[in-house]
Amino acid sequence: MLKSRSIIFRGHSSIRSIRRPYGTSNVAKNWKLILGYTVFTTTFTGAALVVTAVGEYELVRRQRGFMNNPMNSYRRKMWLGPPGQEEFKLRERMGDWFRSLVPTQTAFLVIIAVNIGILLAWKRAVYNRELSNKMFKWFTLRNSSKPITLLTSTFSHSSALHLFINMYCLWTFLPTMDSSYGLIRTLAIFFTGCVCSSYVNVLYKLIRGSTIPSVGASGGILAVVTAMAEIFPDIRLTFIIPVVAFDASTGVIGITALSVCGIIFKKILPSIDHVAHLAGIAYGYVWHRYIHTFYVTHSKTVKSKWRQFRERKY
């Protein structure tokens, strides 16, 4: 997650016009706003766990139905078409590529597409004052934002490079997470990590009186990375530039140390929102140690209730 002080629109420099990035604490004055953030975060996290249990049940049910459906082979033949035609060869190559992806990567293609769409909307907002006002209102995290921006701000990115780095890092970790948690739980870690890290971040902004907006999904991504590092601490991670390889636990420790130093010494990478990064790491640890255990214990009850609901006769 980045502090988006660098986002400027022609004729509308709302972020740079802020003279004092830090002011007096607004916690006492904005207790209703804090209550709204708290209710949204707890409700979203609880609902995400319930939806995860239901989603896993429906996924297994759908997979069983797909395997037993004789129409699927016919649909595949219709998609691939007669042999020897270039159009259908392209379809076959596309199908082979999609089948080579793990389920989490296939699902996150939708998230990547949404992020690209919102980035293009930001670019369009440079020339449209009304659109820029709406984007600032609904897709940036500020100390006076609506509770829904705890989620929507994570789909915004300050630049194409910011989007590429976030999505590339997330994409490379997904195969490992898919083998450990599966599709639905990985999505749950990511989205709840985004919301919880944004929650801690906005509370910090209120305590410090910061008026600098933040954007990005780094909190959710670091929650996924930390959960992965808890399962596979010795798995090797690499960065593109420079090409440096290190194990997952070392990487998490290094990012944690950098985030703590960035909070204490604000001149260390000031454009990065270190609070959101640290909160995402903490959430990933809490998820693996406590929330996941709670989920495994109680998800069977939710799945049983959902199965009874589906099978009841009206």
Structure explained in plain terms:
By secondary structure, this protein is mostly helical. The chain has a single domain (2-10, 24-301), classed as Rhomboid-like fold, CATH 1.20.1540.10. It contains eleven helices and four strands; from the N terminus they run E-H-H-H-H-H-H-H-H-E-H-E-E-H-H. The chain has helices at residues 31-67, 71-80, 86-100, 103-125, 129-139, 149-152, 160-180, 182-208, 218-231, 248-264, 274-311; strands at 2-3, 214-215, 236-238, 245-247. A two-stranded antiparallel sheet has the order 1-2. Helix 1 (31-67) packs across helix 11 (274-311), helix 8 (182-208) packs across helix 9 (218-231) and helix 8 (182-208) crosses helix 11. 33% of the residues are buried. The model is unreliable at 5-24 and 71-81 (pLDDT under 50). Residues 148-291 form the Peptidase S54 rhomboid domain. It is a multi-pass membrane protein. GO terms for molecular function: serine-type endopeptidase activity. Its EC number is 3.4.21.105. The chain crosses the membrane at residues 34-54, 107-127, 148-174, 180-200, 212-233, 239-265.
Write down the CATH class.
Answer: Mainly Alpha
Order of helices and strands: EHHHHHHHHEHEEHH
Q: Count of helical segments?
A: 11
Q: Can you tell me the CATH architecture?
A: Up-down Bundle
What is the name of the CATH superfamily? Answer: Rhomboid-like
